[in-house]
Write a structure and sequence with these properties.
This protein has about 70 residues and is an all-alpha fold. The chain has one domain. Helix content is about 85%, strand content about 0%. The chain is built from four helices and no strands. Helix 1 packs across helix 3 (about 40-55). The longest helix has 24 residues, at about 1-25.
């Protein structure tokens, strides 16, 4: 499960950075890499959204899982 925790966190960081770039210079890096809003781009945005849902729903369990390692 820790791999999923880290993977979803990385996906959220990438998605957040993309949103930051979009707001500052009006440039969508993900759409640029995958050529506008094709099916693959939509799937990537779906994965980012699902990562956010995972992190929200399992926040307490994730925190406890990682805290147990350091205590």
């Amino acid at each position: 499960m820790k791999i999923l925790d880290v993977l979803t966190a990385i996906i959220l960081i990438i998605g957040g950075l993309n949103w930051g770039v979009m707001s500052i210079i009006d440039f969508n890096l993900i759409a640029w890499i995958f050529r506008d809003m094709n099916l693959l781009t939509r799937i990537i945005f779906l994965v980012i959204g699902l990562s956010a849902v995972y992190q929200i729903l399992f926040w307490k369990q994730i925190r406890l899982r990682w805290a147990a390692k350091y205590h």
